[in-house]
Structures are given as C-alpha cells and as structure tokens.
Specification:
The protein has eight helices and no strands. It is an all-alpha fold and 189 residues long.
Length: 189
C-alpha cells in the first residue's frame, strides 16, 4: 500500500537535501511516535464517531502529507510531516479492518478481513520497489510523492462507496428475508 512510501523514504529524502544521516534516521522514530498516538486515539474517536468517519479524512491527510513530503527542505518541516503523517497512518492501520467487519454478517468477518489484508499486503510488497524505481528514474522523490499521493487520495471515496454498497445489499437481503419482495409480480406474467 502506498501509505508506506513516506515511512520508507523519508530518511533517504532527508539525506538528499543535506540533513545529516545521524539525524535523518530519527525521522522514522518520530513518525512511529506519531503513529502510536494515532493508533491509540483513533480507536477511542472511532467508537464515538464511527470508523469511516475517522478513517476517510485521516487517509486524505496522509495523501496530502505524501504530496507535500518531497517538497520539504528543512529539518523542521520533515519533523512536522513525520508527526502528522505518523498520526494519520497509525489511525489508518488501526481502523483498517473495521469496515471489512462492518460489511456483512459476523460469521464472514474473518474471510472479509483476510481478503482485505491480502490485497493490502500485495500492495505493501510491490509498492516500495515500484517507488524506488520511480525515484531512481526521476532522480528524486517528487514523482514518488505524486504516485503514492494519488493512490492514497483514491482510498477514502473507495472505502465509503464499498461500505454504502454493502449496506444497500444488506438492506435488500433483510427486505427479501422479511418477504417484502414476494408480493411483486412481473407485468409480463
């Protein structure tokens, strides 16, 4: 998944702009500290507001930070990106399986969660080498930021649309089980 791009390459991009290697590897720790706060607090917030209400905007903020990251040229700006991005990506990781669990009966929750995590794992495995090839071909991280940001930007609408479709199907199944469609006859019969 493309939310790993900033975490994978923030230290390399820092050394490219002249930040010392002794400090640049701390950017990962800073992002992980933000991620810890995001993981803990997002669960509490999602209990009150709903998981998609929390996940969608924070994923969009991840996309914005991914677009901004290659243009950060100071230590302070990279620290700010690390904290904000870490917080938002931590929330995304924590609430990742919740929409899959909500999309149907509880007896299928494990299957749906497994499918979601399998698809995400494929992206997580393939994404960093693709981004590395893009960075090497363009001699920088701006194209990587555009690529990963565009993919991340597509996630919130996809999450919302898939949940709405699932809720609609669930509603139709409930109506069918109540016999609400049984009195309908086709005009051709």
């Amino acid at each position: 998944m493309n939310f790993l791009k900033v975490l994978t390459y923030i230290d390399l991009s820092a050394t490219r702009i002249g930040i010392s290697p002794e400090f640049s590897f701390y950017l990962i720790s800073i992002a992980n500290a933000g991620s810890g706060l995001g993981r803990i607090s997002s669960g509490f917030i999602a209990d009150k507001l709903g998981s998609l209400t929390v996940t969608a905007p924070l994923t969009l903020i991840c996309a914005i930070m991914t677009y901004i990251w290659p243009f950060a040229t100071t230590k302070g700006s990279l620290i700010a990106i690390g904290i904000i991005y870490g917080f938002c990506s931590g929330a995304y990781v924590t609430l990742l399986a919740v929409p899959a669990v909500m999309m149907g009966d509880i007896h299928d929750a494990g299957r749906r969660t497994g499918i979601v995590l399998t698809v995400i794992a494929a992206g997580a495995v393939a994404g960093p080498p693709i981004s590395g090839a893009i960075a090497q071909a363009t001699d920088g991280f701006k194209a990587v930021g555009y690529y990963a940001g565009n993919v991340l930007r597509s996630l919130p609408p996809t999450l919302v649309a898939s949940l709405r479709c699932s809720l609609l199907l669930s509603l139709l199944q409930d109506r069918a089980s109540l016999g609400l469609f049984s009195s309908y006859t086709s005009p051709n019969t």
